[in-house]
Every structure is written in structure tokens, then in C-alpha cells.
Amino acid sequence: xxxxxxxxxxxxxxxxxxxxxxIAAMVIIAIILIGITLFFINQYTRHNEAIExxxxxxxQVEDAAAMISAxxxxxxxxxxxxxxxxxxxxxxxxxxxxxxxxxxGRTIYLTIQAKNEPLVAIPDLxxxxxxxxxxxxxxxxxxxxxxxxxxxxxQDLVYGVEYNGSPLKGGQRIPKGSTVxxxxxxxxxxxxxxxxxxxxxxxxxxx
Length: 207
Description:
By secondary structure, the protein is α+β, with helices and mostly antiparallel strands. It has helices at residues 2-16, 18-47, 61-70, 130-139, and strands at residues 50-52, 74-81, 91-95, 101-103, 107-113, 119-121, 144-150, 155-163, 166-168, 173-175, 179-186, 196-200, 203-206. Strands 9-8-11-7-12-13 form a six-stranded mixed sheet, with helices on one face. Strands 2-5-3 form a three-stranded mixed sheet, covered by helices on one side. A hairpin with a 2-residue loop joins strand 8 and strand 9. The chain is rod-shaped and about 135 Å long.
């Protein structure tokens, strides 16, 4: 009985000791803080695990969206390009590229095939030289150019532009890559014959 009383008295002294209670509280708080820190470190590490980007080229955006979502990634269509024989809406380029490693939540930037060829505004080519007209048209992506000679005392002076048989005025828009016809002076006002040529880029072909 005496020993039990001594033990109880000793425990009461420890419990009632402010210094010891403070140390115990600090130890408990430290354990809790360490546990919370380890939890968040683990979550952060898992959050930043590398994810392999799927190869999306050739896919339609709707199909690619499901693959991107399954990887906890996002996407954004940033550009559209027209390519002949391309499939409208198909993905042409992606950044980052397929099979590269990224963190989850990363945005994949996509370039897709445009449904229609872009339109370009034709400059005012009347009274321009043939060389100037060709240079301006080529810069716009118009490389298929038919040349029709018309009687004129001015050699290689452009008198008009036609698209699908209709005259074009400066500022009118046509599909990029279209074929246009330039009416060009032949240097002989008395010549009533017409000589047609077709130009592709810098090459000239007689018809």
C-alpha cells in the first residue's frame, strides 16, 4: 500500500508539473506537425509524377479529348492550317510532342487541319508590271497563274486579273492556292492575236 501511494504521489507530481506538461504538449504537437508535413509531401510528390503525353497526330479533336482527359491533362486548339488532301479537323501538330513527359494538369497545344482553304485579298495589280504582279501573287500563295496576252503598246503591263472567268478588283478575297489569269500587254497595239501562258512559281509553260 505504501508503494502504491508513493507511485500515485509521483505521478501526480509529474502531471501537475507545468514544465513536464509543456514538454509533453510540444512533443504531441511536433508529432502532429510531422504527420501533416509527411502527408502533404506525399501528396505533392504524387501530384508531380511524370505523365507520358499521348501521340495525338492524325486524330480528330473529339477522339483526342478523351485520351487527354484520361491522363489528367488539358488541351487547347491554338491554330488551324490548310493542307491539300488533309482530313478536316485532324490534329497536325502538338506541343508537347507525343511520348514526352509532363506533370498532370499540363495543357497540350494543338494545331488542326482547317476545313476550308484560307482566303487571301488580291492586291490592285492593274498597271503593275508582270514581274511585280507575279511577286505579289506568289507571296500570297497564288502560284498558278495564267497569262493572256492582249494588244498593247506597253510590254508586260498588267491590264486586269480574272478568277474563274470573272474580273477581280483589288481587295477581293479568293482561296489561297487558286488559279488566276493575268491580262498582260504584248507590246504591239496592232496585234489582235492572244497568246496564253501558265506560270507556276517562277517557271513558265507554253500552252
